[in-house]
Amino acid sequence: MKRPWLGIVVVLALSWGGLALLAAQGTTPKLGLDLQGGISVVLTAPDGTDTEKLEVAGDIIRRRIEEIGGVQEPDIVPSGGNALSPPSILVQLPGVTDEQRALEAVGTTGALSFRPVLGATVGEVGPLADGGSVPTGDATIGDYQRCYDLPGGSLAELTDPEVDPATGVTVTDDATRETYLPYRGQVLHLGPAIVEGTQVSQAVSNFQNGWLVQLDLNGEGGARFACMTGQATAYFDARRQIAIVLDGEVQTAPPVATEVGPEGIDGGSAVITVGNDPESEQEARDLAVVLRYGSLPVSFTLSDVSQVSGTLGADSLRTGLISGVAGLVLVAGFLLLFYRSLGLVAILGLTVFGSLLVAIYAWFGEATGLTLTLAGVTGVIVSVGITADSYIVYFERIKDEIRQGANATSAAVEGFKGAFRTILTADTVSLLAAGLLYALAVGPVKGFALSLGIATLLDIFVARTFTRRAAYMVAGSRLGEGGWFSITAAAGQSEEAS
User: Fold this and answer.
1) What is the CATH number of the domain that holds 259?
2) Whole-number pLDDT of residue 102
3) For a Cys staple, 34 with which of 216, 374, 385, 387, CB 3.0–4.6 Å?
4) Residue 334 contacts by C-beta under 8 Å, 6 or more apart in sequence?
């Protein structure tokens, strides 16, 4: 083997140097929910929801949360949809800084719709409370019939809305029917949706003499929006408003500007003015997020919400680190006792292995949002045993070669040839197991499978690039033959024991 020290220097620079560089830049592994605290939410979909819809919904929820901010790398995993469990999405939000807004982003899962305001009642009680009737001054769906007849709508057969008899407010909202919803001290009488959230192509907040949201619609949505706003210009009261409703709540209800004529706001674009006060910036940003990502392909039920405190997460991390260090100390002691100088090779190799593993989690955490969970820490601890097994297989091969008459140097070379085949076979089995676990499992088990898979690949890499060269160099030095701490002494110890 020519210049084995050069390969060792490269590996050490890659592992120790790479870890030191990331640490100097302040890049550390991102911790998951169970290690730093946060919130976990389970959204359950109706039975029969297919996997594709769950994946689309999960992607929309992810973008919505990331846009709102305050959540470090949300972990969103669709699951179920079989006989064992209902279709659902597990949403984990580690490091939440604004829990209420994050919950609103996750829990707001209904369909986004733009509806005409047919009338309004001042106060918290609607016109249908206690058997009341719709005021004669309200507009009717017939006034907007031409808008509903345009392509791209989904107006259902009209039925009376289900309302609370005490408040006159709609109990179960349906975008395809009339409804009564509260909004800023009023109860709005809304017609069925004319424009749906799926027809919004873009929404961006910006400042132009005040905070506003620039809204762009597709072809069908633009035509229907122009018709709706054109009809609204016939009124000069609450009926001039256009309500934007998400999950049965009126997000905003801006009036059509006075300069707009009966042709409505055409061209597929509109501006929603929010205001100039200190809260307007955040309101505009949140409204833009709702407009961009409000519509999901399926409605969900918020079936479970659980919280993990930062203290509990820190305790879990501390426990995992203590367990890992204790395991490393025991492994190191065993290797030194049974393999003498080769034990030093194993200990250095474990530091290379650990440095590369931490560096990978830190780099991928920064680049892709990969997080280290408690299950992942468990996988790392298990992988230490796998790596130790690789060293034991190699070192036992070296001892066998020495017992058969080979010197320490040739034993290191020949021993690796046979040992590496065994190591590669065993690691392949571990990789297959990790791959199957990652593909079939959900939640924390995926973290375990991922860390086990990464660690197994690193075991192969370290064995090939570092362990082989380091053992060869030790075998050719004073630690190879002669003395209690030598390789030959370790091989003789086995003979004495037998």
Assistant:
1) 3.30.1360.200
2) 64
3) 374
4) 388
Residue 48, token pair as written in the block? 């029969």
Q: Based on the domain organization, do 62 and 143 belong to the same domain? A: no
Q: Which domain holds residue 141?
A: 112-295
Q: Are residues 21 and 60 in the same domain?
A: no
Which string of DSSP letters, residue by residue, matches 204-249? EEEESSSEEEEEEE-HHHHHHHHHHHHHHTT-SSGGGBEEEEETTE
Averaged pLDDT for residues 221-225: 94
CATH number of the domain that 73 lies in? 3.30.70.3400
185 in helix, strand or coil? coil
DSSP assignment of 330-366, as one string? Answer: HHHHHHHHHHTHHHHHHHHHHHHHHHHHHHHHHHHHH
Closest CA to 108 of 1, 203, 6, 197: 197
> Residue 398: pLDDT band by 50, 70, 90 thresholds?
very high
Q: What pLDDT, on the 0 to 100 scale, is given for residue 496?
A: 44
Whether residues 161 and 65 share a domain: the answer is no
Tell me: do 53 and 169 sit in the same domain. Answer: no
Nearest to 443 by CA among 103, 34, 167, 149: 34
Measured CA to CA, the distance from residue 272 to residue 85 in angstroms comes to 43
Rounded to an integer, the average pLDDT of 480-493 is 83
43 and 17 within one domain: no
Q: Quick check: 256 and 242 in contact, CB under 8 A?
A: yes
Per-residue pLDDT of 38-78, as tens digits, reads 788 888 888 888 777 787 778 777 766 766 555 556 778 78
Residue 368 shares a structural domain with residue 395: yes
**Domain boundary residue among 270, 295, 320?**
295
Do 340 and 455 have their domain in common? Answer: yes
Distance, in Å, from the CA atom of 113 to the CA atom of 148, rounded to the nearest integer, reads: 13
Model pLDDT for residues 274-303, shown as the tens digit of each residue: 888 878 888 888 788 778 766 666 777 777
User: What is the pLDDT at residue 311?
Assistant: 65
Average pLDDT over residues 452-479: 92
Choose one of 307, 330, 355: the last residue of a domain.
Answer: 307
d(C-alpha 272, C-alpha 255), whole Å: 9
* Stated pTM of the model: 0.59
Closest CA to 384 of 312, 467, 455: 455
